[in-house]
Structure formats: C-alpha cells, structure tokens
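Hi D.,

Good news: the full-assembly prediction came through. Inputs first.
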Amino acid sequence: MRGFKWVITLLLLSGVLIGISCTQKKDEKKTVVQDSEPKYGGSLVIDVISDPKSFNPVIAKETSTTAVTGYIFEGLTQMNPFTTEIEPHLAKSWEFSKDGKTWIFYLRDDVKWSDGKPFTADDVVFTFNQLYYNKTIPADARDILTIEGKEIKVEKVDNLTVRFILPKPFAPLLFSMGFDILPMHVLEPVVKAGKFNSHWGVNTPPEQIVGTGPFLLSEYVPSQRVILKKNPDYWKKDKKINRLPYLDSIVMLIVPDQNSSLLKFQAGETDMLSMRREDYVVLKPQEAKGNFTIYNAGPTLSTTFLIFNQNPKKIQEHKWKWFTNQRFRQAIAHAIDKETMINNVMFGFAFSQDAAMTPTAKFFHNPNVRKYEYSLEKAKKILLEAGFNYKSGILHDKDGNPVEFTILTNAENNERVNIGNIIRADLQKLGMKVNLQPIQFNTLVTRLDSTSDWEGVIIGLTGGIEPHNGKNVWYSSGQLHMWYPKQQKPATAWEAEIDKLFDEGASELDSEKRKKLYLKWQEIVAEQAPVIYTVTPAALYSVRNNVGGIKQTSLAGVIPYIEEIYKK
Amino acid sequence: MAQKSNFRIIINRLRQNKRAWFAMWIIVALAFFALLADFISPYHYDEQNRTKSYHPPTAIHFVDAEGRFHLRPFVYNYSLVDPVFKRYEPDTKKIYPIYFFVKGDGRLRLFGTDEPSRLFLLGSDLHGRDLFTRLLYGGRISLSISLLGVFVSFILGLLMGGIAGYFGGKIDNILMRLGEVIMAVPGIYLLLALRAIFPVTLSSAQVYLLIILIMSFIGWAGLARVIRGMVLSIKEYDFVTAAKAIGSGHMRVIVRHILPNTLSYTIIAMTLSVPGYIIGEAALSFLSLGIQEPYPSWGNMLSAAQSIRVLTNAPWILIPGIFISITIICFNLLGDGLRDAFDPKATGGVEIK
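Then the structure:
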C-alpha cells in the first residue's frame, strides 16, 4: 500500500472525495441548479464503505479516515472545484518574492478553533515544523513538501503572517498549501510526549477533536455511523452574511459494500449516492418515484491502464526484450478496444483516455498526444515491422520464442477484470498467448512494489490536476514508476527527458511555460507507451431532490462546498 | 454370478423408485450434453460478440414480419439501440434461418445461423459470449471436477479407513485423529485456506488438478471413519482369516477381501457427497480462486451475477445457478434411491457375501 500514498494524499489535497470548503469569491461562475432559498437546519445522510481508522489527518492513509477529517480540518488554500484554480482559504492572501523563494501568507483574522481559541500563525508554523516535517510522524505530506531533499523553512512573522522560505522556486507550492492545519494549543503537549501517532484515535471523545472546519465530530459508533455536527462559529458566511454551514449535521452510515449503498439509497435511508456505472440502469427508472435526480459529473480523475515489466533481470530475458521494445508496446496500444470497454464494461459512462493527464485536469491536459485507434491490422503490421513473425498463427519473436505472458489485475475490481478480459481476447487474436490472472489487491501491490515478479499488470491510479504530484510515478527514481521503479539513473533516454521536464516544471513559475513542459511530457508518454491507457469512468451521483446547493463539478462531485448544502 | 444378480436386483429396485430413476436420467443427460459440448454448442466458449453484450435470449420465429409461415425456424439479427440499458432491436427485414449440422470453425455443430446473426438460446454475458455454450463447457468442468474429486477422495478414504480398521492400535489412532482434525475445521474455510497455500498464478490445468486435490484432501476423513468401523467387524469374518491363512499380504487382504464388502455403503456415500464437491468448486470459482476466465465453470459464471444490475436487467446470467441446484437435487435423490435399493432389509436382500 505504501506506493499508493500519493493517490490518497492527492485526494486529501484536492478534496476530490468530499468538497471541503472555499470562499464565496467565485459565485458568479457557478451554474445554479436549485432556485429555492437556502435555509438552516436538517441533516444530510450519506454512506461510507468502511470505518475511519482514526481522526488524525496527518497520519491518515485511507480515504475512510480523510472522508471524516475533511469536514473538520482546513488548509491555507483550496482548489476551486469548478476552475481548478487555487483559492484563498485559511490564508486570505499571499505574495512572493521575485526569485520565487520567499512566500508570505496572510491569515484570516476571523477564524476560531472549535474550542474557542483563535487561529494564528503559531498553528501554521507548528503544523509544518512539528507535524509534517517531524521525522517520527509518518506523514505522507512530507514527500510532497520536500523539494529535492530539502525542507521548506516556515517562520512566523506576526500573529497572522507566515513566511515560507524555499530552497528553490517551487511552482506547485500553492497547491501543496491545502494540507490541513492543526491546533498547536491542543497538540503541542502530545507531540512533546511523543504520543502524536496514536493520538486522536477512534476512541477519542468527540469534543477533544478540535478543528476549524464547517463540521465537528459528534458521535462515532463503530460499523454503524459517524455523526458530524455543525460548527456554530465557522468563519465562512454566505452572500447575505449569514453564518455557514446551513446543515445541522451530517450522518455518515457505514455500509459493508457498494451493493448495500445502493439498497440504502433505494430504501430512502440516504440522501446521496456515489453511483457505480452499473447502478444507473437500476436507478434511472425510479428517478421520479424515488424523488431523486441523477447527475453525470463527467470524467473522473481515475485511470485504468496496462503496464509491462521493464525491470531488468526480474523476468525472462526474451520477455524483457519485448516489453522494453517501444514498437511492441505501441502494437498493444492499438489492440485496446476502448469503445467496447466504454459500452460494455462501463455501460456507456466512460471516456477514452489518451494523455497521461485526464481531461478533467483542464489546464495541464494535452489533447494533441498520439492516439492509438483500435486496429488489430495496424497492431499486426507494427509487430511484423518490429521483427516478430507468425508460425502457424502463433506470434514468435525474431529469436523464435512464442509470445506468451500473464497479465495480473486485482480480483476485487470487476471493471478491471472485465477490461482485462477484453484485452486478453484481442491479444489472442494477434497470436499471443495471454493468461489473465485476477489476484488479491495486496498481493498485486507486493509484486509491483517489492518482488517485481510480474509480466503485465492492469491497474489504476487516481491522478490529480497538479502534474508535479505525479512525480513519484513519472520520475525514473519514483516509488510508483511502476514498470521499473526506483532506478539509480534513468534506464532510457526518454525517461531521462521526463525526469528533466519534471525538474524544470517544478521550478518554473511562469504558468504558460510550465504548461508547455508538461504537455511535452505527455507527448513522450504517449509516444513511448510505457503506460497503455484504457478508459476513464464518469462520476455519477444520485441526490435526493430535497437537498439544495448541488452543483456539478468534475473535481468534487456534486457537492462543491459542503457548507452551502441545505435541506429544502 | 451372485454379484451380477445383486446388481440386477438393485437396478430393478432403483427403477421402481420413480424420483431416483428420473434424477439419474437427468444426471446422465447433463453429463451427455457436457461431453458433447463441442458438437452441441453453437459457438466457441470464448467468442466475444462485443456489440451483443447482455443480449437477452434470442426469440425463435416461424412467422415473419409479413405474416408468412416458414417451416424452417429462423431468427432476426439484433442491433444495440441503447448501450446503457442494453436494449436490442431486431431487424425484421432479413430473416436468418436456423440450420442443423453446420460447419463452423472447422468442426461440425448441431445448429447455427448465418453471420452476423447469433442464436443465443439462453442470452449472452457481459462480453457477448453465448451463455448456452458456456453452460455446456462449464458443466464439463464442474461435473468432471466433482466426480473426479469424489473418486480420489473415496480411494483415499477407503484406504485410510481400511488400514486403520485392519491394523488397529497406533496406526488406527494416528489416522483417525488426523481425520478428526480435518473434520473439525469447517469445510469452506479449509478449502480457502488450502487454496491460499498454493500460488495464485497457475495455469488452468494446474488449477483444475489443484481443486480436485484440495477437495479430496478435505473429503476423505468422513468416509474413512465409517469404513474403519465396518472393517473392524468385517476383519473378524472367516473369509478374512482364510485369506490370511493362504498367505495373502495385508494390503491384498484389505483391498481384495475387506473393502469390496463396504461397496454398497461406498456407492451411496459417493453419490450423496457429489453435491458437496459441486458446491466446493462453485465456491472457489465464485471467489475467483478456482477456474479462471476465459474457461467457464458454473461457479465462475455465477460470480458474474453478483450485482443488482444483473439481477434486475439480465436475469439469465443466473441460469448456471439453476443448473447447480438441479444437479445437486438430482444427486441427492439418486443417493436416496440407491440407499433404499441397497437396503438389505428390503425383500430379496443384498447382504455381505
């Protein structure tokens, strides 16, 4: 699981799972679906698949935890889920020096911790220096906040001003400032006593969890529910200067699986459902009777792709030769029947993916990369050109080895298994003998991560809108550089070029120049096809019609700002 | 001679038991269909028809859109009109007659239609594969795995029980305690635990053998215990003493003289334990630890029915489950019938010779 940290961190950062909160500045950009006036009161009932493991956002590794803490804690900045721009949050504004190495953040003066103490620069300095940069705390954020091995120096200027001194200009800094800020007055004694890693566990009395967010923990009954209640002193106000949030409480029902989520929603027990593609057929005919509306929020950030093992000396030499052959990978890319995947596996709710950044990422997405249309003829032609040949219908390489390999995927994910089945059937038509083997997720990750004992794998990642956060996937020394991770020095010229682009991209402050670097990276990835993309699903939601404040965004689902949600 | 007449008596008694007789013929029919899958099935089990995903069973017509009657039944070609709800519309302009004894992929098939139409007797699955075809091939795997599993575990059980009962003492003690340990663990968990010991990535043939092995390993203990009890009494008979007296070795005495006398019990017990093996294979394949795609087994076919969407909109995916139930019921009925037929207390007794 170690390798998947950044995914979860990204979720934390961008608030993809749960719309965290934001200022009201960009109101004019929102398309208003509801027309009724917001009113106070009521509770929103949603479901979560598993129990939170703690209420400590710094050490949280799983979305079941961050789904709860996302309501309680906030960061200095936040991403606008409509435009993907970074907006002020606990920091009301910022400025930076010409060389891009010194950043000054001015904090809001009207923020209070839920125990009544004011929020100050001390909390920010404490959170960065004593939590995220504390080597005894396993904080995932540290990887992203470390710039070429060096930490950012965080200093207090006055009570409401913080200075960040960077070792090098760092373009994604603002994006990284979305990490949760925690209360110093509560946690400093805990950190000093060395007990932070076990602090704020699931047995903590709710009132001891102190945050600045729109909701506070009220009750947690294991395997049943988490109840969050409104923070009466929340700093944010609506257009009429009424204090937000509107809702009195959020009830999160803990359910065992997605089938139960669907049944609970059908039974009217929950107000909102994050749907699987297949649920659409079940729910659509009931829309009017069940008094709910289905929203299609467009492509998600999640990807599904096929990779081949390029680790030297871990697999048979002749197989390694195929997998490191760009032509071979391109041929396979031509054998991916995305249309069938979209229609049959995703029930029509998915999009073909060609570039490493999904279209959802908007600014950094490159729509002009090389596209591999589905054509077994083309695939065959490329294979023949690359020296492969057919002997009685079976594909052989030029040394006479029959092309035969195993593709692994995780058995828990039906969509991946079905996608694998389509790919397997097509590769067989190309004369390859392909064995599709669904195995347990943890076993699969161990193979990818440590033993490198695999040939092909179909797996997915949840990307983000900030390309730099994909560094541990694309950088040749990255932990998640799955086809050949943790390289001492780049194995190929194109991997070296990607490394260079990522280094330059991180310190380039001019956003247009920066964009060019990342567009180039996506071109290289498409051309070399180390990662053969398939389809990216659409995010579907069902929401009860008595829930107000629902807006469709591609990044935060249908709840862009939880504090603006109300019950009609 | 006596053996043969006994067999006749049993068959006659079984025939009188209508239910058991009927069940036996259903089993024979299933086995027959599975054996002849290559001929009866209209398509290859891995033929994906990508534009015919979750296609409902194809309607067979005699009367066309203009009201004309055709002696030869025909089907229409369907095209997908709604990829979300998977709705299909027939093109009634062109009819595709159903031909018998057609050639396809270089082999003779019982029936078929012309391209591009498809005759899905029982509908198709997500990949547009013919469910009827997969059911036949799946039956081949599910039935053969369970029959072979039963066979291997009964050989084991007979040997273990025979040895334990014949020698007694320490050997008896060790073997029976071992059996009790295996029986003490709930079957399905033992099945999963044993499967977990072996690597996950195995070829299909290896998985097939592995499942048989695992199921036999779990299955022998119960039988061994009963056989041991029977052997304890049989070994005191004169014919055993006689066999020993003429110098037969221990194993020869056990295998040739003692075990055949447990046959009537063994046959009944074997028949009654087949359902357990069918369920065992289905459970493993359902949890994707058994037979792997693209090879069908009733268990892995049924695992595709694990969603509400399939249950409500493509209920034909559940058909393998119905076949699992039918087979299990039939084996149970047949086992009951055999028990009655073998019952020595009934007239014309079949006894220990």
